[in-house]
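Slide 14.
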Amino acid sequence: MTTSIMIVGVGGQGTLLTSKLLGDVLAAQGYDVKLSEVHGMSQRGGSVVTYVKYGDKVYSPIVDQGEADYILSFEILESARWISYLKVGGVLLTNSQKIWPMPVITGAMAYPEGILEKLSAMAEVQAVDALKLAKQAGSPMAVNVVLIGLLSKRMDIPEEAWLKAIEETVPPKFVELNKRAFRLGREA
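Slide 15: predicted structure.
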């Protein structure tokens, strides 16, 4: 049996570090882990998705529509864009932050209203203000680690394993900040 996680966001939000951290934690627990390449316009603020699959034996990291056990979303509109990939009984964990895409910035479109309510009618959704928690931890750049903390509560992996992965993955000067961000996400 495998578990599938999609990490979705906007370029520059740290989805790559998130998938690496998650992959490291899972591998350290003895799982076979496959990570996908990043898909999307990561350098231009566009939509980005990575796949993480783990279990006893994993043959491919790709997650098809209706297969994701979890979607970890860095932005509400990205949650809506990828919700069809969540399986029945899956969980959407999302940052409540709104990042306006170019058509909204230029005035060509309005940012859709009521997205969280619509998503909540389709699946189990837990939304947190990860940006606020990241700032509370010491940096708005720690949104990704706040979201990892949120996901960690739903996984049967000891907190110490997550903290060890942070120590091994994050540059030393940012370790304590990221540990604070992780704990704030875990408590959210």
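Speaker note: Residues 2-187 form a domain with the Pyruvate-ferredoxin Oxidoreductase; domain 3 fold (CATH 3.40.920.10).
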